[in-house]
Amino acid sequence: MDRSLVAAAPVPYWLDSPERPTPRPALKTAVSCDLAVVGGGFSGLWTALLAKETDPDREVVLVEGGRLGWAASGRNGGFCEASLTHGEANGRAHFPDEYETLERLGKTVPILSIDPFDRFQPGPLNPQGNYSAYLSNVVQNGFGHVCMALSAFSFDAATVVSNTAGVLVLDGDHHYSSVSRDLSLYLPKIAVGGFLFIDDYGPYYPDVVRAVDEVFSNNSEFKIHAKSYFVIAERVRKPGKAPREGRRVLSSRHLKK
User: Residues 19-43, buried b or exposed e (16+ Cβ, 10 A)?
Assistant: First the structure.
C-alpha cells in the first residue's frame, strides 16, 4: 500500500491538474468596489459571478486567504454530524464565545419569528421593524432560548419553516398579492390540529380581508374559530385530503337484478 502511494500527492483529483489556473497576485493595496465577497469557495464564486451577470457594471471584488476552491469546496470529503460546528469539541475549540448561540441555531426552536425588519422600506400599510430592538426585547423578556428572529422576507423564508407547524401567526405585508402568496406558501405547513392566526382582518386592511375570504370561503381543511379583527383557523384535515363521504347501507334486495 505505501509503495503504491509513493507518487501520490495530498491534493484532490480535480485540482491536481495542469489546467488549474495559476494563483492570482495577493491583494496588497486598498480597493473600492460595489460588492466585496469574502471567501473563494463555491458559494463565494457563484455569488460574485451572479452579481456580475445581474449587473455587468457592478464592481465586484472577491478575496480569498488561500487559493480559489482549495478548501471544502474542492475536497472529496464531508461531515455527517447533526451540528453546525461539526461536533461539540470542535465547536468549543474554534468558537468558544459563539458556541452556545451556534448550538441553539443548529436545533429546532419552538418559535421562529420571521420579518424583514430593517431591510424593508416602510409604507402606509406596512411599518418598518428594527431587528436589534426586537432581539433585545426577546432576550429581556426571557424568550431568547425559545425564540429565534430570522431577518428575511416571508416568501424567501418559507423553505426553512417546518411542515408540521403547531401555531402560525401571519402579520406581514398587507397588500392583496402578498397576503395571498403568504397564505399559499404557509397554509400547507400547518399540522392537523394546529392553528393559524391572521392579524389585521378588518376595514382598515381591505386587501387582507379579500385574500383571507377567498382562501377560506370554500375550504374544508380548516375550521374558523374567530373572524373579527383577527382570524383564528384550525387545520382539521391534511392538505389535499377530501372529506369522507357518508357510508350507504344497502340491503340484499338492492343487489338483486
Answer: eeeeeeeeeeeeeeeeeebebbbee
